Amino acid sequence: MVCDQLRNVVTRVEADVASGPIVPLVTPQEIRSYLASHYDFARPLALEDVCADVERMLRTWQVQVTHPRYFGLFNPSVTLASVIADTLVAMYNPQLATWRTSPAANEIERHTLAWLSGKFGFPADAVASFTSGGAEANLSAVIVALTRAFPDYGEHGLRRLTASPTVYLTDESHHSFNKIAHMTGLGRRAIRIVATDGHQRMDLDDLTRRISEDRQSGLAPFMVVGTAGTTAAGVIDPLPDLVRFCRSEDLWLHVDAAWGGAAIISPSLRGRLAGIEAANSITCDAHKWFSVPMAAGMFFCRHSDAVDEAFRAETSYMPAKTVGPVRDPYTTSVQWSRRFIGLKLFLALAQQGESGYVQMIEHQARMGDVLRESLKRAGWRIVNDTPLPLVCFTRDGLVTAKFLAALHQGQIAWMSEVRLGGGAPVVRACVTSFRTTEADIEWVVREMGRLI
Prior knowledge:
Layout: H1 2-19, H2 28-38, H3 47-60, H4 80-92, H5 103-119, E1 127-131, H6 134-149, H7 153-156, E2 165-170, H8 176-183, E3 191-194, H9 204-216, E4 220-227, H10 239-249, E5 252-256, E6 281-285, E7 297-301, H11 304-311, H12 343-377, E8 381-382, E9 390-394, H13 400-409, E10 416-419, E11 425-430, H14 438-449
Parallel strand pairs: 2-3, 2-4, 4-5, 5-6
Antiparallel strand pairs: 1-7, 6-7, 8-9, 9-11, 10-11
């Protein structure tokens, strides 16, 4: 019954979003004034009326990221099964801190993560967990890598170390690592920015030079972060080269594949991620290219002993540890109390099947190719190189900010501005919806021509 009712609601919302505006035209003061005048919480209101009003606010005052012409950041259209999953989780409210409290939920997550871990080529004894997002997964990677590289770190902190640890990544890497360096006590200056080549990929020669110089200066390099699908341009760092280098230098290789990691299940794309199977750890977000609702990050690590040491915890008010081959998530992850995050991916995979997901991902990749070719025919210049459906483009004389303002004002599409390699701003468009069609793209490119 829940499934049938939600199917009708989701179908209606999808149709409303697809036929309506993409960009809200509203000021903060307008929303604040409305909330102040309608919701002082002094008296109870009818739930049906409040729900209808909240839905109206979301429909009117939000960039519609599930719109087929939303070509923005990695906020996908979502599958029906994943919406149903989130509703079931809210109703039953399982607590996944311990296995004993929620055996079914914990095993469903373990089963789902093991499937994807195998696709990445990780060994059967690798450990994985669902996270609140890619930032938490990246934080987990840094904590576990520190714990493995510096045995004194867990008990005594950085002050016991004889040299300052350093992390290596490019300017195209996700900026969550700047926060992580602050939170872990490494300090933001522990982040060492490696140069990129002409395609914004990590430059191995510069990485080699920087690590050699830092060691000579008394620092302690311990981690390299490669990216499989950068936010700005969809770049995939040279993973096989990074694997060989990190092995030779005894460095932890973390691959941030928050968006691009889903390509591992695609026969036509998985070769682009060659080398990821040899990483020490991986970040991948189901709430990106696996098209489930926020928030559903995932952390994968081949070193279960290091994970156990990094997050070990024990207290009398938690149920006793379960005997047998299970792990209590509060002892193997950053989180303590934790929502049943994984059901939305499990249910969507069960409903779509692997083949259905392959079709969804490869369809979006094809739409990226359609967008590139359509833009070229219309006189635009493509300025990034990626097999993923993310296209950065410009043309002579284009004032990017003015163009995007007109694009949004006309409700043609949602795109954003980005600078690649410190150059001039260009337009960034990413296909994030499995509902985007070739007709959508051709129409958008034609309408864009009227704005220049």
